[in-house]
Design a protein that fits this description.
The protein is mostly helical and 342 residues long. Among the domains are: 94-175; 187-328, Serine Threonine Protein Phosphatase 5, Tetratricopeptide repeat, CATH 1.25.40.180. It has twelve helices and four strands. It has helices at residues 52-56, 82-108, 115-124, 130-146, 151-161, 176-207, 211-244, 250-261, 269-286, 293-302, 305-308, 313-327, and strands spanning 29-31, 72-74, 165-167, 173-175. It has a two-stranded antiparallel ribbon. A hairpin with a 5-residue loop joins strand 3 (165-167) and strand 4 (173-175). Helix 4 crosses helix 7 (211-244) and helix 6 (176-207) packs antiparallel against helix 7. The radius of gyration is 25 Å and the shape is globular. The protein starts with 28 loop residues before the first strand and ends in a 15-residue tail after the last helix.
Length: 342
């Protein structure tokens, strides 16, 4: 089962996406280069409009984006030599690198106050090839899971960009929405393999006879676990934010919750942390459609005395927090700091 092809947990019907207009195979596309002339009937030379223009725009000021900016223009069909083909490939790679750099620059400026401008910047990018689309999706995804505080903003950006689509090499249509969902699913499913790998590493550490080697393996294992934990938790937070933007469905949330609450590991620390983060993010909206009593009964059982010695205190507090949040109708209460007067 999964996000995109699970039964009965299927994606809710969405509006059909517009087809990508097909370009004639005899007119390869290029980004407009400086000095390129417009139709002679206009009697003027166009201002230099290259992909560099975006980099020079300040995200601090509102700039009206012309719909023809960064447009692609066809060149005259002609026979090309090997050197010309090589030159075209190099130019395309350079343009792809520049798009990559621009996306990074825009994401570095993202904040709640400039989201409308950020979205305009993204929509102005020449994301017209599968490589550029995949690169853009990868960068947005990494931003969301590595910096959890930006997950809501990245989800909002995904909502605005979800209909962007291009033709892939096999002739199929690839969309921003499908790619971002696929990224989330891949990391969520990868956790299963990582759990097995972690168990093997623990066995290797315990069987090591050399104290120095054992210490080295232990440190390496702990560092790797911290990195994996951060990505797993960040992914679940992002999945929740995508649900709030109606990119993911309630059935997919239930699929994730069931998988996290039934992890068959001795001490399911990371799955429980992911579950708590996911429930805090989607609980209020999800309970409008589904009853989560069974899930919370299992969470309460995990905090019972029989499990106290197995569940770390940090995770028990997280579980209790989400239980309290649900009891309060998903309204966060300010934490009260009690100071000892003695």
């Amino acid at each position: 089962m999964g996000f995109l092809c699970s039964q009965p947990m299927q994606m809710a019907p969405t509006q059909p996406m517009e087809q990508v207009p097909q370009q004639p195979s005899t007119t390869p596309m290029q980004i407009m280069q400086p000095g390129a002339k417009r139709n002679s009937s206009q009697g003027k030379t166009a201002k230099p409009n290259t992909i560099h223009n975006i980099m020079s725009l300040s995200l601090r000021e509102e700039v009206k984006l012309n719909h023809t900016e960064y447009a692609l223009v066809p060149t005259t069909a002609k026979k090309t030599t090997k050197s010309e083909v090589s030159k075209t490939k190099n130019e395309e790679e350079q343009n792809n690198d520049e798009v990559n750099q621009i996306v990074r620059l825009i994401l570095n400026k993202i904040n709640p106050d400039n989201m409308s401008l950020i979205i305009k910047r993204f929509k102005a990018l020449p994301i017209d090839t599968i490589q550029r689309l995949e690169t853009t999706v990868d960068l947005v995804f990494e931003k969301a899971i590595e910096e959890q505080s930006f997950a809501p903003l990245c989800a909002c950006l995904c909502s605005a960009m979800q209909s962007v689509q291009v033709n892939s090499k096999d002739g199929k249509i690839a969309s921003f929405k499908k790619l971002i969902i696929s990224k989330c699913q891949s990391l969520f499913e990868l956790d299963k393999a990582q759990e097995m790998d972690s168990a093997k590493k623990i066995t290797e550490i315990n069987s090591s006879k050399d104290p120095e080697k054992k210490k080295e393996l232990q440190l390496e294992f702990e560092e790797n676990e911290r990195r994996l934990r951060k990505r797993s938790v960040g992914n679940c937070r992002f999945i929740g934010e995508l649900f709030k933007q109606n990119i993911l469905t309630p059935n997919i949330m239930l699929y994730c919750i069931v998988n996290l609450v039934t992890k068959h590991v001795e001490v399911p620390v990371v799955p429980l942390e992911c579950l708590c983060i996911l429930l805090k993010t989607v609980g209020k909206k999800l309970e409008q459609s589904y009853n989560l009593n069974d899930t919370f009964d299992k969470l309460k059982a995990l905090t019972s005395r029989d499990m106290e010695s197995k569940i770390p205190s940090r995770i028990k507090f997280m579980i209790q927090d989400v239980i309290d949040l649900r009891r309060d109708k998903w309204i966060s209460r300010p934490k009260v700091l009690i100071v000892n007067q003695n």
